[in-house]
Specification:
It is built from four helices and five strands. By secondary structure, it is α+β, with helices and mostly antiparallel strands.
Length: 107
């Protein structure tokens, strides 16, 4: 988003609010030349309520299908999908899963 200094001066609080809510930096122009940026302190986009609800729904759907997902918060994309270990009839983790973990270990 670009804004001229006169408009920024007249509406500073609304631009600060937009930066806080969207995380999008504002390019400040002086006579059509960029001179500064107004950016959020953390540099991350703040999540909306809808985005949080969507992420939780995705995590539930994945869990129902036997997948786990480690999501980094604050708008990140799914970083890793791993199948959940199968549970044996006696409630213990499947022996094959334990054996595969042991085989990956460098003793």
């Amino acid at each position: 988003m670009k804004v001229k200094t006169a408009d920024l001066k007249a509406n500073l609080s609304s631009y600060v609010r937009k930066v806080r809510e969207t995380g999008e930096p504002v390019e400040i122009l002086l006579r059509e030349e960029a001179v500064a940026y107004l950016t959020p302190v953390c540099g991350e986009k703040k999540q909306t309520v809808q985005e949080i609800q969507d992420m939780k729904a995705l995590e539930r759907d994945l869990a129902e299908n036997g997948l786990t997902c480690q999501m980094a918060r604050a708008g990140s994309k799914p970083s890793d999908f791993t199948p959940a270990p199968a549970v044996a009839g006696d409630g213990q983790v499947d022996v094959i899963t334990v054996e595969s973990i042991r085989s990956e270990k460098d003793w």
